[in-house]
Structure formats: C-alpha cells, structure tokens
Amino acid sequence: MPDKQQLIHITPETHRVELDLAYATANNFTGKPIYKEAHCLLLAPAEAGLRKAVELADSIGMKLRIFDAYRPPQAQQVLWDFLPDPTFIAELGRGSNHSRGTALDLTLIDSNGEALDMGTGFDAMVKESEHFHKGLPQHVQRNRLLLLGIMHAAGFTHIASEWWHYEIPGSRALPIIDNSESGPLKLM
C-alpha cells in the first residue's frame, strides 16, 4: 500500500484516463507553460478516489480527461502573480489543495474522445464557470451535473467557482508538498 504522503504518478496506462496537462503547455489562462515536463501526480487518498471516478465514468461509456493535479507551490505563485483573484486562485498564505496533492482539474470525454460541452473552457476565469451558473443551456447543466455526480460519488468535493475542480474532503488539514526541485514536476 502506498505511503499517504507519497505522490503517485497518474498515467493513461495505469489509470485509464486521458491527460491534457495544460500547465505544461501554453494552452492555459497564462498563455505560457509553467511546468517543464508533463507529470500528473496525486496523493494516495486522491488517487484512490480517482480510480473510483474512472470506474463510474466507464460504467456510462465515458472517460476522464485530466488538466492538472499536483501543483508545486512555486507554480501556484506563478498563477497568483498572473491573476491575484482568490475567486479562482488560492491565496499563497492559504495554499492550494493542488499543492497538497489532493485536487485535480478534469472533464468528461465521450467514447469518441470528444469533451462534453461544459459551457466554458477549462480555467476560464469567468462567472460562467461556476458549477450552477444560471442561464447556461440545459445540456451544459446536464454535463456539469454528470461530472459532479461522478466525482461526488467517488468521494470528492467541489468548489463553487470552477466546474472542473475537485478535491478530497479535509484537504486543508494536510501539508503543502514542495517537490519542485527534487521531484519530477520541474518549473519553467
């Protein structure tokens, strides 16, 4: 059994997910890569929840596409410096649950590999990204509720402002993990 403080690698082969790690590319709200290499990492409790979510998605012919998981605190600093808005970016003193290895950003994809329409893109820092934003088309609400149901059934909670963000309950009680220098997630 893995150590609860050890970050576990998440790969398509080991976890039957698709990876589109946005912060290793320029395809994110900053417009530039933050990580030198794309690695998807989670603490054991979050990894166990992810395995449950994968099974639930698979039972309805869907798959999960992960945009981000563990994020070194230095990467959190880059995001905060770019957009110091606590609605979307955790303040540095509080710390992000991504930096605790307990949060992930993701969406659902169908059997053709197409992402379900969630109304906004991943990391769109706008009010329309709220889970229950009024005025979105029914199919968008349905897709968001489907993702929410899968992730809650797998043991995750959500935050109100980002339809893509899920974390394990009690994450704030865990320490921030800094592996930016010694671990596989090197910063640009």
TrEMBL record:
Binding of Zn(2+), residues: 98, 105, 165
Record family assignment: Belongs to the peptidase M15D family.
GO molecular function: D-Ala-D-Ala dipeptidase activity; metallopeptidase activity; zinc ion binding
Free-text cofactor note: Binds 1 zinc ion per subunit.
Catalysis performed (reactions): D-alanyl-D-alanine + H2O = 2 D-alanine
Name of protein: D-alanyl-D-alanine dipeptidase
Pfam families from the UniProt entry: Peptidase_M15
Keywords: Cell wall biogenesis/degradation, Dipeptidase, Hydrolase, Metal-binding, Metalloprotease, Protease, Zinc
Organism: Paraburkholderia phymatum (strain DSM 17167 / CIP 108236 / LMG 21445 / STM815) (Burkholderia phymatum)
Site (Transition state stabilizer): 71
GO biological process: cell wall organization; proteolysis
EC number: 3.4.13.22
Essential cofactor(s): Zn(2+)
Superkingdom, taxonomy of origin: Bacteria
Chain segments annotated as transmembrane: none
NCBIfam families linked: PRK10178.1
The protein's role, per its UniProt record: Catalyzes hydrolysis of the D-alanyl-D-alanine dipeptide.
Active site location: 162 (proton donor/acceptor)
